[in-house]
Amino acid sequence: MEVFTEEKCCKYCEEKIEICISEGLECTECRKQVHLKCLKRGSVPGGLYGDVFFSLTCQECSTDEMELFTRMKLSWLQVIVLVLFHLQNKSPGLARKGFFHWRHHVAKFIDKNWEIIFTSDVKRKKKWTGTIAGTLSHFSNYIFLSGTSVVNETAFWTLMYPKLTPFAISSIYSVMAVEKQQLKNKKEKVSSDADLFNNTIFTCMKNVDLLQIFSSVQIVSDVKEDSNNTIIDMECNQKDLKPKNSKRISVQPQFETSSKKMMKLVSSTAAFSNDLATNFKPLDQPEKTDDIISNATKEDITVKEFVKLLDPFCHYNTSLNNISRMKGLTLHAKLTGGIRPELILSPYSEIYLKPYIRRDTETFPVWLKLMAEVQLAGNKNDKQYHLPPRGPIDYTYIQPQHIPAINSICNQFFWPGIDLTETLQYPDFSCVVLYKRLIIGFAFLVPDVNYTENYLSFIFTRPYWRNCGIAKFMIYHLIQTSLGRDITVHVSINNPALLLYQKFGFKVENVVLGFYDKYLRSDVNDSKDAFFCRLER
Ligand SMILES: [Zn+2]
Ligand SMILES: [Zn+2]
């Protein structure tokens, strides 16, 4: 209990050390404490937020005047709490409504920071990621909170008490374990761990402000705002659908809607204003919370494949089969994703990225010209009529709210089963292009495919938005982000995009016969053989 009551002051600044407010490390020699923020080194090794799980030899006590840190042995519970606490404070943009994916965010982060968290003496056990899923479920509803019970998100987790630091949670847990043992020794009835833990929190933590339970209200309202948007009425309907209740119905081109399949699709996606929140489920993954562990293997496979599955510039036609495959999503989720104005913290480089890469007000793509003509024709009797101003084309980094739309485009234009959620791990190497909230293009690099090389995995521009420099700028941007590294790409041998790559200096290294065998649909004319091209740096 003493960690909660004992009054200690920082050896360096002489101010109070307080749990959850201003935590510190204790020197193993002089037994005095030092604030994390007062460490001469600037931060603990690894820089994890709230990480006090080191034993310290302070500057004065150390023989060479250098602070010395030794990692304590951490339990999986401590590690997961630490990682969620760090992500929640340092990479909030990665979360989906405040929740993090146990594999794509938590396990990935641990894997990347393994030496810091466990030291290099500890080796990964075969099923270590399964342990993460198991630990999350075991402590669910009092230390961790599953996304399912709150916002219908499976495999997503957060901390029940977001303001309690990893040190506080870990101390409360050990107090609880001791009390539980004492009760057992006295042969008294022991209540559930969850009840014991909650009671212990209230006896230990005197400051009730810190005991706020996670609430997703704030974050959910952000998403709701997205759903009241206005682009649906014209830009998105390229040639497939006629929206209901459109105010601009008079300027709509008259699309054919006679096909049965189309009619069915219209009715199933009629609710344009549906809350997006209910439609964020990944396409081909009807997961249930209980089987997160068994799903691990399945997900493993998708992630590995994604790194291999590559296809640049597929300019394929949309087929109805592909559209109907997506009918489970609202049209809205399929097409849109806005830009949040705040900076995005990259989990890869740990630097803040600007919300916009570029804002282009000049370019006038074919689709917008077409729409302008339709509007003018529709209003030709109105002498006062002026075209409404057109919006800019915005280039931005990938953000969580883009993922459903991008996955859906990939499933439609490339092949089924693509999930680009992983790109949120390295947003530095992405470029997403929006007109208002319509996604019109995107491009992704996979960083570090080997020491000197980044790989261009997907690049796409919507039909009718092509040939006006969008892909060119995306490639240019990605080249800028991988200074000092080669960029490689596979491109189908009869794909005209090769010329664009060559303009940037890419050189054909070899030909890979049958590269697209598994992926291209038989109705696509592109060659299944690919050039492997490299831009040398
Ligand atoms: Zn201090
Ligand atoms: Zn000391």
Summarize the structure.
Helix content is 32%, strand content 16%.
Q: How does this model look, in words?
A:
The structure is a single chain. The chain is α+β, with helices and mostly antiparallel strands and 537 residues long. Among the domains are: 2-71, Herpes Virus-1 (2-Layer Sandwich); 76-219, no CATH class. 32% of the residues lie in helices and 16% in strands. It has 17 helices and 20 strands. The strands form six sheets. Strands 10, 13, 14, 15, 16, 17, 18, 19 and 20 form a nine-stranded mixed beta sheet that branches. A hairpin with a 6-residue loop joins strand 1 (8-9) and strand 2. Helix 2 packs across helix 3. The longest helix is centred in the N-terminal third of the chain and has 20 residues, at 166-185. The chain is elongated, with a radius of gyration of 27 Å. Mean pLDDT is 76; it is low at 217-328. Bound molecules: zinc ion (ZN) (2 copies). One zinc ion binds at residues 10, 12-13, 15, 35, 38.
